[in-house]
Amino acid sequence: MTQLPTSIDDTITLLNGQGYICERGLGTVAFLALTLGKPLFLEGEAGVGKTEIAKAIAAALGRRLIRLQCYEGLDAASAIYEWNFAAQMIAIRTAEAAGGADRKALQDELFSQDYLIRRPLLEAMEPHAEGPPVLLIDEVDRTDEPFEAFLLEALSDFQVTIPELGTIRAQEPPIVILTSNRTREVHDALKRRCLYHWVDYPEYEREVEILRARVPECTAALSAEIVAFVQGLRGQDLFKNPGVAETVDWARCLIALDAVSLSPEMVSDTLGAVLKYQDDIAKIAGSEASRILDDARASIASLE
Length: 304
Known about the structure:
Layout: H1 8-16, H2 24-36, E1 40-43, H3 50-61, E2 65-69, H4 76-80, E3 81-83, H5 85-98, H6 103-110, E4 116-118, H7 120-125, E5 134-138, H8 145-157, E6 159-162, E7 166-169, E8 175-180, H9 188-192, E9 195-198, H10 204-214, H11 220-233, H12 244-256, H13 264-270, H14 278-284, H15 287-303
Parallel strand pairs: 1-8, 1-9, 2-5, 5-8
Antiparallel strand pairs: 3-4, 6-7
Helix pairs in contact: 1-2, 10-11, 10-12, 11-15
């Protein structure tokens, strides 16, 4: 188990070692969250690297990553635990077949740890040999207000209650990272429990650095063209702008096609790797792709 970083620079270096290239603002808030033991709330467009930082921190520190993927209708019970009803029914029928079962003893056995299915929040509260895990509460904006209120209590005390077993409190609080794509506003009370950071699209140089770290087989020239083109796409009136994840995916697709540079034909053929809506693809394909590519190359030339 790796010790927690002792400075902002150590935090940035730790993340860089996992291929996560971040700016100093994000490195600062990550360091403070680790040092102070406070949850980290990351908000931003989809695909800018919010989820990846949780993975990078877990890998860098040698901790287990526990992910709670949020969705509409998620409730507290689904996030904490459920009972293994199938195994409980088998135990009941076995006891009935044997005859003379002690009803109280059977009930105590059925609602014991042996029949408990642990969900992410309960798993995160329990001890782990490698140290407190990283709990990723992903896309919390997809849930509703009752679940937010439950999270507020759980993250305040780092404890959960199972009626049949009682209250379970974390001996050491997990490292908590919440993400939001801002499909709706998350309540201020939950944000106040956390350190907050808006994760924006990276600047050109940083995105090239990210791409080279994630796809080292991509040449410097091709990386520059890819990033300049994607950043040109973000300046268009699209339904969904491509994130850094799409930049990386597109580069891998181009490498698989043995591309050494972009061409209008190559761009049009592979737009599905970087744009995810047909209306956006139809808008960019053809002459518009050629124009953006020309602008991208002019932008690169101006930086040289």
